[in-house]
Amino acid sequence: MRRLTSSLAILLSASACTTATTQPQVSTAIPEPMVAPILTGPEALDTLTFAQPQIARVTHVSLDLALDFEAQRVSGTATLDVLARPDAHEIVLDINGLDIVSVTDMRDKALPFTIGAHVEEEGKGAPLTIRMGDERRIKIAYRSGPDAEALQWLTPEQTLGGKLPFLFSQGQAILNRTWIPTQDSPGIRQTWEAWISTVIPAEGEIDVVMSGIEGDKADPTPPPPNRISHYFSMDKPVPPYLIALAAGDIDFRAIGPRTGVWAEPSVLDRAHAEVADTEQMVVAAEKLYGEYRWGRYDMIVLPPAFPYGGMENPVMTFLTPTFIAGDRSNNGLVAHELAHSWSGNLVTNAVWGDSWLNEGVTTYFENRIVEEVYGKKRAEQEAALMYANIQEVLEEVGMNEPGTALSTDGQYELGSAIAYDKGAFFLRTVERIVGRERFDAWLQQWFDNHAFQPATSELFLADMMANLVRSDAEAGALMLREWIFGPGLPSNVAKPDPAAFAEVDGAVSAYAASGTIPSAWDNWTAAEQIRFLDNLPAELSHEQLAALDIALGLSGTGNNEILFLWLEMALENRYEPAVPQAEAFLARVGRAKFVRPLFQVLWDQGDWGRPIATRIYAETRGSYHSVTRDYVDRVMSGGD
Ligand SMILES: [Zn+2]
Fold it and tell me: How far is the CA of 517 from the centre of ligand 1 (A)?
């Protein structure tokens, strides 16, 4: 296969890595790359980084950090191994809000550095340019700023246990530059290790997990007696947004030989029961697309402030507790994060405008895992819900809106029905046309041949043309370019099975016609219940809402997806009895998927809703992660 690398990129891919000396790396022969190549085509140019990896790039990050829960900062050092052109004397890093104390070589000799102008938009931050001369290992002493966007510090009162504080990080897309000074670009893979020290509080133990394997390498700067140090390492090169940390009062319970779950003690039983199928999911995923390459697959169920459903941090998926429903009906989320161990973590979008390569491929893969573990019916129903999402967005913005292309040329919107659901339907369509057997073989070779490397839409397309497509006729039928670069939905889309929701769609019609509330509700799958609520008439009277709530138990549901849909439709119809529950929900949960639309609905309700939204947000804003806060700030300033 063609690979979009120049000879320079291949040279730079030869890693100096952890054994770097102070000598410049001059290689005549090209050694086996330990760090995957960067891509150098124009379509791989990441405009969200200041780094110039074609001149000098970070290959290994070694952190030695202390967590300070009172000041809500991390402080310590980052030691970086650098691979650079022999004539390179500078390296440019990404930082955002860091206090840089000093930069030195490994003999503690100061190296001059400058911090460029801060770029506010998109959280790009500022370039940290270090004059490293011939040094290829540099040490930065620093601390994070007071409002580092990647980090959320929770007081004991914000945790379930109420005894100890909690910290978690969220790096994607470009937030890690608020706590780690490195080249924060998904195309610049780095290995890493970290010593993280915490105080030993009287109230119990603060445990630490990271997106790496815990070990016992001695801390080069041992902590004082009132602190304890934890060591983690990741020996596979990862994009730096995948370096993640969580710390708090957490316990672990095993699921299978290589799988397990961490959570606050009071939620561990429920969390463990909800993810009990994870080992089966790993087996199913391996059967589909080859070996799981990361060793362990553990998860941590975080406090409800976590802004996303899940984050695929290697060997340690981060999860919201709001997916726990008691019946595993929302654990497609686990299948999704697990699938990222291939699509996203193994093969990574080189630029965020190609995020469908991470998310669309993963959403397809997720659905295949769900099919393997839970059967065709559930998988088809979940696919039908995705298809409805795509249609809803396309109806809203129009089939010709350029932003509905999978490859978006730099515009990047996390959580979009396009990158995830349209991306998944693209792969589903290809699978239907070439047949599952050929498609699966192709996708597995895609993961294998591009493992630990960045990818672009052009590379994906070229790989399909070279390794999957057999004839011009087939290429025409597949409409690959339209799918990747065109707006809307191509005409060959493999639609979901219309029978998937036949019963529910009948019940929706019956309700619309005669107000008949479905008697089979309690026997329905969660997807069926969601489908029903999604398709109810937009306008419902207070009597109708009360009747639905009583008959279906909506406000008392243990499934947050259902509860969210109930609150959304109740607020859309200005149903006062739901306001206290919405308020409690918005105070308890920080997941952007739920929080942003509920504030949007209130905002859209003008005179009735805006005062309620303003009152609630005044109480809850401080408890949200920056990701969620940014969304809601936009809503509350009249944007959407
Ligand atoms: Zn994802």
Answer: 35
